[in-house]
Every structure is written in structure tokens, then in C-alpha cells.
Amino acid sequence: MTTARRTQQERRDLAENALLTAAAELVAEQGVRSLTLARVGERAGYSRGLVTHHFGSKQGLVEHLARSAQSGFVPGLGDLPPGLDRLLRLIDGYIAALGSMNLRNKVFLMLWAESATLPELVPIFHERAEVFLADLREDLTAGIADGTVHPGVAPEETAIAVFGQLRGIGLQRLLDPGLVDTERLRGPVTAHWHRALTRHSS
Fold this sequence. Notes:
Layout: H1 2-30, H2 37-44, H3 48-55, H4 58-70, H5 84-99, H6 103-114, H7 122-146, H8 155-175, H9 182-197
Helix pairs in contact: 1-2, 1-6, 2-3, 3-4, 4-6, 5-7, 5-8, 5-9, 6-8, 7-8
Pfam family, one: TetR_N
DNA-binding region: 36-55
InterPro entries: BetI_C, Homeodomain-like_sf, HTH-type_TetR-like_transc_reg, HTH_TetR, Tet_transcr_reg_TetR-rel_C_sf
């Protein structure tokens, strides 16, 4: 019985991953406006009914796609305690990841950009932004507490500044990849934030 249940879960996970990949491909090719459950099912080799079973609606599908793309964008951070080191690794790793942007990361940025003109996407990306900002605030607050971040740093405003810069670099990378050399950029950006946040900053 245990083996049968595990096999069923594996089949479910395989189908869900295939559907999310199909959805990402369609968004990358034609934008979110052209996305339908029927087209996703057809692209993945499944029925529309299975797409509905997994995600409920187009909105639910886009939410899952956004979450799956953002989670794990910078691997290895989950093993680090909150603080300055984790924050700097996030900044460096985020820019590095933009250099080898995979399909779902690219689609996440495309959906984020489209949320400016599609109200139905706003709640999804408001939630995703809050998760990102909460992590940044946690690192800044922990850094202030342990003395590695200057006590004059304002966690809320600084988190928004870091968030805005990283997302802005990502959007520019999406729009004009040749302009953004991530390997050259990651060092100076990370060093800038290290200087700005440490106790030695003026």
C-alpha cells in the first residue's frame, strides 16, 4: 500500500511539473493573456480537466507558476541564519542567477512586469513581494542585533531599496540581456551594499 501511494504521488508531481512547464512555455511565447487551461493541457499532453484538478483556475495556475519560479531562485540560503552574510549572499546569488535565467525565472519576471497592466496579477505579486521583503527585513534586523549592520540602518526602507534594485536589474536583463553583464555587476553591487550596511559606513 505504501509503495502504491508513493507511486501515485510521484505521478501527481510529474504531471504538475509538466503542466507548470507548459504554462511557462506559453507565457514566454505569447504572454499571460493568451494562457488558457485548455492550451496548457494540450501542450503538456494532458486534458484540461487535469489542469483544473491541479490548479482550479487560470488564476490558481498563475499563482503556482509564480511561487514555483521564485522559490529556490538563490539556492542554499535556507541553511544560513538571518543576518548580513545571508543578505549579501542573496544579493550576489540573485544577480548571478539572472545571468543563467531559466524558463520559470524568466516567466516570473515577465508576469511581474505584466502585473502593471493586469489587475488580476496584482495580488499574486503583492504576496510575492511581501515574502521577499520580509526575508530582507529579517536579515537587516538580525544584522543590527548582532552588530554587523550599522544601527542607523532602517530595515523597512533599506529592504525596499534592495528589493527594487534587484527586481530592476532583473527586468533590465529581461528586456536587454546584452546590456546587463551579471558577472561584472554582481561584485560591485554586493560590495556597495556591504559598505552601505556595515558599522563603518558614514
